[in-house]
Design brief:
CATH superfamily of the largest domain: P-loop containing nucleotide triphosphate hydrolases
Number of strands: 16
Structural class: alpha/beta
Number of domains: 3
Largest sheet: 6 strands, mixed
CATH architecture of the largest domain: 3-Layer(aba) Sandwich
């Protein structure tokens, strides 16, 4: 099996999006966007961020012509979007919004199939695509295809919204505050899942958020806008934190730029430690044989290696069988895509200052410690993106 660290990155399937001296006015008022020029590379996530009223959503909506520029042009792979029929253009661009916007009277499968059916795909091809996408976003087709949006959690609706946006395999995806309507824990998990998905698909994504921490985590490049849609800086998160272009950018990013740099490094960047584990259903005698001398705690996992909690070494003395009810919770579950800042924040408020790293199936990969993250902070702020 190929080492994932050595495997080549997948080719980008996204398009190049460019803004060329774009200005947008509403009536006789001041511009909502002013002489905006920058280019989003194929396969990258560009995050638009800035204070309220700075033109973030207006800028994004000019890509699919929900808003028309007053002057200048927006291009996709060199073609002016104004020269393309608006309906055809929008069917080629995925769109995910904060409140998801699923049709309540349609099932999950019917929601995902909306654009393929508008494009005239045959039923077998549409059904195959729906099944593929539900699996891709982590929803079992057999369990979810026939459900209605009202029966889904906020996170599940968000995943269906992403699947629907990806249905026609668009090269460009627009995301307007996509994770803003879910709780913080679910939000981090959805962010991580989306980054894992993007690593496979390499779409070009225009992502709007008001949260600079989310921008730093999600972006390949960040466009910070000032009121009036003036571009204050367009850069990688690393360079934006290390060299703000103006006092406005420095103030907007915040005084804790050093700590924010922990968001540039991921849990996957740290070497993982292997905890002592015991498995539900094994005998105390078998568990004791694998406990090194001096071990006081071990991690209980199930048959699929999913962590359940901790067990004291003296709890497996004598005769008996390891049971899930013996697990003491405490460790935070982390994903490889979690930022070190998120990991440190979660671990500091847990009763065990170890984070258990799990894969997309929640199987244990290893553990990291607060001390390991602290060393990264002391060494200067994580790894820089290419």
């Amino acid at each position: 099996m190929t080492d994932p660290e050595l495997a080549p990155a997948p080719a980008a399937s996204g398009s190049v999006v460019a803004f060329e001296h774009v200005t947008k006015r509403y009536g006789n008022g001041p511009p909502a966007v002013t002489d905006l020029s920058f280019e989003i590379r194929a396969g990258e996530i560009c995050v638009l961020v800035g204070p309220s009223g700075c033109g973030k959503t207006t800028t994004m909506k000019m890509v699919n012509r929900l808003v028309e520029p007053t002057s200048g042009r927006v291009t996709i792979d060199g073609a002016d979007v104004a020269s393309l029929p608006a309906v055809d253009l929008r069917r080629r661009i995925g769109y995910v919004i904060q409140q998801v916007g699923l049709f309540p009277h349609l099932t999950v499968a019917e929601n995902v199939a909306v654009v393929p059916r508008l494009l005239g795909w045959g039923e077998p091809r549409t059904t195959e695509r729906v099944e593929e996408l539900l699996e891709l976003v982590g929803l079992d087709p057999g369990a979810y295809r026939s459900r209605y949006p009202a029966a889904l959690s906020g996170g599940e609706r968000q995943r269906v919204g992403v699947a629907r946006a990806m249905a026609a395999d668009p090269s460009v995806l627009l995301m307007d505050e996509p994770f803003g309507a879910v709780d913080p824990i679910r939000r981090e998990r959805l962010q991580n899942e989306f980054l894992r998905l993007q690593a496979r698909l390499r779409k070009t994504i225009v992502f709007v958020t008001h949260d600079v921490d989310e921008a730093i985590k999600m972006a390949d490049r960040i466009a910070i806008l000032q009121v009036g849609g003036v571009l204050a800086q367009y850069d990688s998160p690393d360079r934006l934190l290390g060299a703000p272009a103006s006092p406005f950018v420095e103030h907007f990013v915040g005084a804790d730029r050093g700590l924010k740099r922990l968001s540039l490094a991921r849990v996957r960047d740290l070497p993982l430690e292997s905890p002592v584990t015991v498995v539900v259903g094994e005998s105390f005698a078998a568990a004791r044989q694998r406990l090194p001398d001096g071990t006081t705690w071990a991690l209980i996992v199930d048959a699929q290696q999913r962590p359940l909690g901790w067990i004291a070494a003296n709890d497996v003395a004598g005769e008996g069988t390891v049971d899930a009810s013996m697990a003491t919770p405490g460790s935070t579950l982390l994903q490889p895509e979690s930022t070190l800042r998120d990991a440190l924040s979660a671990m500091l408020v847990s009763s065990v200052q170890l984070g258990v790293v799990v894969d997309e199936h929640d199987a244990m990969l290893g553990v990291i410690s607060v001390a390991a993250i602290s060393r990264t902070l002391q060494d200067g702020a994580g790894s820089s993106p290419p």
